[in-house]
Write a structure and sequence with these properties.
single chain; 332 residues; alpha+beta; 60s Ribosomal Protein L30, Chain: A; Phosphoribosyl-aminoimidazole Synthetase, Chain A, domain 2; 7-stranded mixed sheet
C-alpha cells in the first residue's frame, strides 16, 4: 500500500505530485486550480484574498519567534504577496494534554503582539485538547481574509523576458535557526529566524511594474522559482554571487550538506518586476526595515524550456530543480 511520507509535506516535487494527483483531481475548481498562496475572490464590487495554513513546527519556541508568531506571519504573508491588505484571521488551536499553561499563555501573547504589529485581528477561533500523544504539544491553524490593494495586478501570466528577480534579504535564516534550536549541534554563532509580517513592506513597494510575488517558505527560493517557470512559460536565471546568504547560515549548510537555496524562510519575498521599475522597487525595499539587504539576483529569459538556472560563483551553469525528498521536516 502507498504511504504518506515526510517528503509529501516538504513543499517539493513529492508534495506537488500529491496535490495534483489527489487534491486537485478530487477537489479541483477554477479558484483552487490556480494553486496560489491565496484564492482571489470577487464578492460584489469587492476583491478579496482568502488563505489558510497549519503550523506544526518543532520546537514551538525558537530564536526569533515561536509557533504563535509564525502562525500569524505565515498567513499574513500569504495574503500580502498576493497583493492584499490582510484584515481578519481565524485561529484554530489543538493542544496535547499536559502542555504547560505558561507555554500556551506565551504563545497567545505572541499572537496578540504579532497581530498588533501586522494590523490584523483574530475574529473567530476554535480550541481543542487531545489525549497525550494525540499531537506533539500544540498545532495551530490560521485562515485569513484581505482586501486587494489598489494598483495590485499580479499574475505569473504577466511575467516577461527581461523582468528582474528581487529578494528582500538573506535566505535560509528560518530553517537554520530551527536546526540550531533543536539542540542537535553546537555552533558558536547564534542564528535567528527571519519570521516577520511582510504586509507593510509589500504596501510600500506596490506598483504596476510588479508582475508577481511569492514568499519562499517550504522548499526555499529554488522551489519557489520552479513554481513560477511552468506557468510563465519562460526560464529564470539567477546569479549565485548575488543571492544574499549570511556566512553563519552558509557555514551551517556546508557542515550539514544542505543548500541554502532550498532552505525555508518566513520573512522573505521573491518579486518578479519589470526591468523598467526594478531600481525603484529595490530602493523602496532597502528603505524598509525588512528589506535592507534586498538584492536583484537574476532575471527572466526568453528561452522557454521552463527551467531555473544558476550561474555559479566559478562561472558555470547548473539547473536548479524542484526540491526532492525532505531536507528538514516540521519547519513551519
Amino acid at each position: 500500500m502507498r504511504k504518506i511520507t515526510l517528503a509529501h509535506g516538504s513543499g517539493g516535487s513529492s508534495m506537488q505530485d500529491l496535490i495534483r494527483d489527489l487534491f486537485i483531481k478530487n477537489l479541483g475548481n477554477p479558484l483552487l486550480n490556480k494553486l496560489g498562496d491565496s484564492a482571489l475572490i470577487d464578492i460584489g464590487d469587492k476583491k478579496l484574498a482568502y488563505t489558510t495554513d497549519s503550523y506544526v513546527i518543532n520546537p514551538i519556541f525558537f530564536p526569533g519567534g515561536d509557533i504563535g508568531k509564525l502562525s500569524v506571519c505565515g498567513t499574513v504573508n500569504d495574503l500580502a504577496v498576493c497583493g492584499a491588505r490582510p484584515r481578519y484571521l481565524s485561529l484554530g488551536i489543538i493542544v496535547e494534554e499536559g502542555l504547560d499553561y505558561h507555554d500556551l499563555e506565551r504563545i497567545v501573547l505572541s499572537i496578540r503582539y504579532t497581530c498588533s504589529k501586522a494590523g490584523v485581528n483574530i475574529v473567530t477561533g476554535d480550541f481543542k485538547v487531545v489525549e497525550k500523544g494525540g499531537v506533539d504539544k500544540i498545532f495551530i491553524n490560521t485562515a485569513g481574509i484581505g482586501e486587494i490593494l489598489k494598483g495590485s495586478r499580479l499574475s505569473r501570466n504577466y511575467i516577461k523576458p527581461g523582468d528582474k528577480i528581487i529578494v528582500n534579504g538573506t535566505i535560509g535564516d528560518h530553517a537554520a535557526a530551527i536546526v540550531m534550536a533543536r539542540g542537535e549541534l553546537r555552533f558558536k554563532s547564534r542564528l535567528f529566524s527571519d519570521c516577520a509580517p511582510l504586509n507593510s513592506l509589500v504596501s510600500s513597494i506596490m506598483c504596476r511594474g510588479i508582475r508577481f510575488m511569492r514568499d519562499p517558505t517550504r522548499g526555499g527560493l529554488a522551489t519557489t522559482l520552479n513554481e513560477i517557470t511552468p506557468s510563465s512559460g519562460y526560464n529564470i536565471r539567477i546569479d549565485e554571487s548575488e543571492v544574499p546568504v549570511k556566512e553563519s547560515v552558509r557555514a551551517l549548510c556546508e557542515i550539514l550538506g544542505f543548500d541554502p537555496l532550498y532552505m525555508a524562510n518566513e520573512g522573505k519575498l521573491v518579486a518578479v518586476v519589470s526591468s523598467r521599475v526594478a531600481s525603484k522597487i529595490l530602493s523602496l525595499m532597502k528603505a524598509h526595515p525588512l528589506g535592507r539587504n534586498s538584492k536583484i539576483i537574476g532575471e527572466v529569459e526568453e528561452a522557454k524550456d521552463k527551467r531555473v538556472y544558476l550561474k555559479t560563483r566559478i562561472g558555470g551553469t547548473r539547473i536548479l530543480d524542484v526540491l526532492r525528498g525532505e531536507q528538514l521536516p516540521r519547519i513551519c
